[in-house]
Design a protein that fits this description.
Its cofactor is Zn(2+). GO terms for molecular function: oxidoreductase activity, acting on the CH-OH group of donors, NAD or NADP as acceptor; zinc ion binding. Keywords: Metal-binding, Oxidoreductase, Zinc. By secondary structure, the chain is an alpha/beta fold. It is built from 8 helices and 18 strands. It folds into 2 domains: 171 residues, Medium-chain alcohol dehydrogenases, catalytic domain (Quinone Oxidoreductase, Chain A, domain 1), CATH 3.90.180.10; 143 residues, 3-Layer(aba) Sandwich (Rossmann fold), CATH 3.40.50. Strands 3, 5, 6, 9, 10, 17 and 18 form a 7-stranded mixed beta sheet that branches. The mean pLDDT is 96.
């Protein structure tokens, strides 16, 4: 197949500004460990909104490409690639899997270098590192596949690897977006109880109930502390998961964690916005920790989760609630910020 020389892509040119849809030049050839993928679908994660809004501070890599969960078909592979071949259907993910950690791709835009990470998916084609690509079955739905790039692997990984939630343990999940819904689904799969979803939008809470939440709390309408303790008892919850990155929510979540429970931080606070907790319980059995994508291993977890989906044990069809074209990506971002999108939205290339 002829190697494409250009593509349309969403470029972050300036922080806190809309993405620009631009024509970008692809590299003339692949470097070692690189894989060229024709992108079919991309998901949008809250992490990309954080990048656009600059929650981690000044971005030294502007302008650059974005996106870290997607599906597509492999068009070509570079030297030394052994796990992937042309024609493979794949998931693209930001967590490292098996294979080579390749050099970063060298795109050109307006005659200058355009920065990009080991995987980007807000583009019609992507030069991806071999270890950010996992092969999926030939007949697997390409619109479902992007969810395994982040939302599913992170959400279920939080349950399995971070919280290590056990049968009958209680859990509170702050933030019922794409990742939060999979945390809730994972908690239901291990028979946790109660599973308490907390959000500021009723539409997201209704979706959380579909994924296994037993109790719903709208934090704009209820006293979260009083409501949670009424459900769990005064000891609090065995596990509290924060997906919001809001330090006030994190502080409250830590308070609501039992003396031998786990507070897991998935969302990332803005740079300089620090939490304030009473640390004495940490010297005993209480624990607070950050999650890095649920500590997922894509090469192992994605095939396992695909089998669950194929056998009706993983609800993903109802996770996708909105679809957009690449040209509508800023509309999608605005709807995510406003809470109008209840689950995961897809960008179709």
């Amino acid at each position: 197949m002829e190697f494409p020389d250009s593509m349309r892509a969403a470029v972050l040119v300036k922080q806190s500004y809309p993405l620009q849809i631009e024509h970008v030049q692809l590299p003339e050839k692949l470097n070692y460990g690189q894989v060229l993928v024709k992108v079919h679908y991309s998901g949008i994660c809250g992490s990309q909104i954080g990048e656009i809004d600059g929650i981690k501070g000044n971005d030294p890599f502007l302008p650059h490409l974005l996106g870290h969960e997607g599906s597509g078909e492999v068009l070509a592979v570079g030297p030394c690639v052994r796990r992937i071949k042309s024609g493979d259907k794949v998931v693209m993910h930001w967590r490292k899997g098996s294979g080579i950690d390749s050099p970063l791709p060298e795109y050109q835009w307006n005659g200058k270098k355009l920065n990009a990470g080991f995987v980007t998916t807000f583009n019609e084609y992507a030069v991806v590192s071999e270890n950010r690509v996992t092969v999926i079955p030939e007949n697997f739905p390409m619109d479902i596949a992007p969810l395994f790039g982040c939302a599913v692997t992170t959400g279920l990984g939080v349950i399995n690897n971070n919280a290590k939630l056990k049968i009958g343990e209680s859990i509170v999940v702050f933030g019922a977006g794409g990742v939060g819904l999979n945390v809730i689904q994972g908690a239901a799969m291990v028979s946790a109880h109660p599973i308490i979803a907390v959000d500021i939008y009723d539409n997201r809470l209704e979706k959380a109930a579909q994924f296994g939440a037993t109790h719903l709390i709208n934090s704009r309408k209820e006293d979260v502390r009083a409501s949670v303790l009424k459900i769990t008892g005064k000891t609090g919850a065995d596990a509290v998961i924060d997906n919001t990155g809001d330090t006030d929510v994190i502080n409250l979540g830590y308070e609501l964690t039992s003396v031998n429970g786990r507070t897991i931080l998935v969302g990332v606070p803005a740079k300089g916005d620090n939490i304030s907790i009473y640390s004495l319980p940490l010297h005993f059995e209480k624990n607070i920790s950050g999650s890095h994508g649920g500590e997922a291993n894509p090469s192992i977890d994605i095939p396992n989760y695909i089998r669950l989906y194929q056998n009706g044990k993983l609800n993903l069809d109802h996770l996708i609630t909105d679809r957009f074209t690449l040209g509508e990506i800023n509309i999608a971002m605005d709807k995510m910020r406003s809470g109008k999108i209840t689950g995961r939205c897809l960008i179709k290339m």
